[in-house]
Predict the structure.
Amino acid sequence: MENSTTQMMCHLSQLIDDAPGPIYAKVKQAICRQIDTGEWQPDQRVPSESEMVKALKVSRMTINRALRELTDEGVLIRQQGVGTFVARKKSHSALFEVHNIADEIASRGHRHHAELVEITLAKATMEEAMNLGVRTNHRIFRATIIHFENDLPIQIEYRVVNAELAPDYDQQDFQHNGAYHYLMKVAPMTEGEHLVEAVLASPAECALLQIDASEPCLQIKRRTWCREQLVTNARLISPGSRFQLFGHFEQ
């Protein structure tokens, strides 16, 4: 057991880099990486706080915060007096599928076009790295795109793309949805997840969407995978009066 714990901590410490950022967040990212790659299996006991403090040479407060937040997020399970374990992944029933917005608009007999507001090639921040399951300073694209239906803005798309998986993303025809087709070609989606919230758009977003500041909007946070690799992380903002979600399910 001691050898197993030592090996776990050795691998974990190798994933923590020297890039700027909170230490607790780096510990969280390293633990998630071990779980995502299958190094740490569901129901497996993880090293204790004391073992992590000693091996990683960080404060107990740092380790406690990392483990506490991962427990709150459902990544780990802490059993009083027993230890901390890797949680089993929960099964979810999809309320709706990931659709191409251009196809949705076309199905209504309307015209779609998009405008690329900005695209940059950069190094991932701590938050972006955690959302894409990569290291900080990993090469990513950041893009802001406005989608139109019959010349009326219907959605702002903020997208972060793993540049290693889609190296020519910034060379695509964003106006005619070429970027979507390019991603489906080089890294076809095998899995996706959504988080849907009601929000108010920022003043800049209201200007882009041509709406009043008081109009409620629908925000979708979406991540997509190609097999075991995260390809994109996107945040989509749409006016509530112009956009709706539909899902069909049976029991």
Notes: Residues 91-96 have pLDDT under 50 and may be disordered.
